[in-house]
Amino acid sequence: MVYASKYSHEFDESNGFGWKYDTEPKHDWSTLMANKNAELQRLTGIYKNILNKAGVTLIEGRGKIVDPHTVDVDGKLYTARHILISVGGRPFIPDIPGSEYAIDSDVALDLPSKPGKVAIVGGGYIALEFAGIFNGLTSEVHVFIRQKKVLRGFDEEIRDFVGEQMALRGIQFHTEESPQAIVKSADGSLSLKTNKGTIEGFSHIMFATGRRPNTKNLGLESVGVKINKNGAIEVDEYSRTTVPSIWAVGDVTDRINLTPVALMEGAALAKTLFQNEPTKPDYR
């Protein structure tokens, strides 16, 4: 989707390099979605193949931990010396009136049609990535952030530069605005009410306001795995939970939530458990 969104800027710039075309290039959303889904299926197949070749048994279903050494998957029990929880996180939508009309980043990856006018709530990198995608695919994009600037926690010059460049591309920023309610009109369009007023006419309102660990209904509390108030699993410096035979890595532990970090934590745990080489994850 990022690649797809870059072409519109290339088309704009190509005129100055002598490219001429009689009609403006048109984008077909359904072709992009169909090809994206086909590619995801291909990748899923590759991952399953890697697991298979490595001698891993893949069991697909809803897993629930029933005791320190047993997992129930759709009524069938599996026992093991060690259990690793690596279920990641999921997008979080704040509980405001009308929040049922909002979408999250998972839904945004799979929309049946291109947004006409989209509100994106949040100023982190997921929010900005989608703002860039929809802007490049010629949607009207409004970004609402609580702060004065985007990318809280990033380098100050980068924050300024990214905000300026995105605004030059036509993305409209609404700073120091917090969403208070979403209202659906009779024509199906959405309005976003904030502490500074109401903006109408959105086809989609997307929240990119952080993620939460995906720990609901895994049976963790009943077996004594300690979870903090955010829903994250508490682990020691070797990724062990409060139950000695149960371990956790990745976003579900809410340490540093990035894909390469989860891979590194998993590799460290494999050494600890199976190579007789206790290894702490190295975050440097």
TrEMBL record:
Its cofactor is FAD. It comes from the Eukaryota. The keyword Lipid metabolism does not apply. Residues 30-266 form the FAD/NAD(P)-binding domain. Transmembrane segments: none annotated. It catalyses: 2 glutathione + NADP(+) = glutathione disulfide + NADPH + H(+). Keywords: Disulfide bond, FAD, Flavoprotein, NADP, Oxidoreductase, Redox-active center. Its EC number is 1.8.1.7. One of its GO terms (molecular function) is flavin adenine dinucleotide binding. One of its GO terms (cellular component) is cytosol. One of its GO terms (biological process) is cellular response to oxidative stress. The keyword Mitochondrion does not apply. It holds the Pfam family Pyr_redox_2. Homodimer. Belongs to the class-I pyridine nucleotide-disulfide oxidoreductase family. PANTHER family: GLUTATHIONE REDUCTASE. This is glutathione-disulfide reductase. It comes from Gossypium harknessii.
